[in-house]
Write a structure and sequence with these properties.
Order of helices and strands: HHHEHHHEHHHHHHHH
Structural class: mainly alpha
CATH class: Mainly Alpha
Strand content: under 5%
Shape: globular
CATH architecture: Orthogonal Bundle
Amino acid sequence: MRQEIWYRRYDELSAEVERLRDEFRARCEHLGVNQETALRELQAEVIARAVHESNWQEGLYLDPHRTRELTDLAFSKLPDIAGPHLDIDRLIDGHRSEVSYMKKQNSSVEEIAAYNLSKAHMALSLIRWDMSNRMSAILVAALKEFEESMPDVEAHIRNKSSLGEKDLDLLKILDNARTLINPLIESKTAIGFPITGDVSTEGEMLKQLMKLDSQTLYNLMHPSYLHALHRITLMGVHPNNKLGVFRKTSVHVGDDETYFPLPSAVPQMVQDFCEKFPNISVNAKYDRILMAAQMSHRFVRIHPYSDGNGRVSRLLMNLILMREYPPVYLKADKKGRSRYIQSLRRANRGDVKPLGCLIAMSLIAIYTRALDAISTN
């Protein structure tokens, strides 16, 4: 029986991803190994591969061993960040100094590009952390607002002659809300990421975040994140005046089927993209693989920058996958490039499942490698 064409196998491939993930989770539990710790130990290897393949897609080839060295170096240097939220300017300034030093050491363009993309993957963790903190602040703000009306609601319910099932459920919700608010705000847990200044605990950070203006707090993704990723990715390999700056000219590619937005439309389209960016919390209710494919493709179709759009789009792909899956890489050999281009063309026609297939294939390879690493067979 003839096997189904690769881009029509999404359901089969995604099911295999979940099977391998469950097997990996069970194997870690059997060994007494924390699953996140095990994946973190493989992270450098996977990200080095992602950096190698993504830059290769753009014609920047560097030996995989050297790429791994630069990835390790990038992750060994944690930035100094001012709280309570991500200080992007300080993040960029620190990276600029590192790239300047590499240039003085006569590092090649390929080496700088590899270091940049490694640093951009590290920045993804900080961006996810920042977005998650603001989600927590939104929850606490909502609970605090609800808390003010709790006594009146509770009194109204208890004054009833008899309480129904819905009344009892609502009283339970009120009790749960009380138990959630104070522990979050008064939390003395030290912040796990490097933050300077007066904010040192999660409770202090939430209090500070709740003081931010509503647009900053509620729009979890915003253009400054995209500009930061673009600037880090292309620092030292692209003109400085085009880093983190929307393109001013039209885009022309050798594909008669593909049309990109006019430059004047880009800012609002990026704002719309940010407003529709999915909730990346662990409890998000959507197919994370297909969502990663959809948002990555949508960013490429906007094509907001004069260069580097593909690399940033694949970073966003991994940002959406985070917390549920390890980072992925899309192969850049002849076969891999052909499939990637084919998947983008099909996504242009409204079908993102082929791109989802490529993500699933990568996850299958990564989980298989992870299982081999903890297997005695």
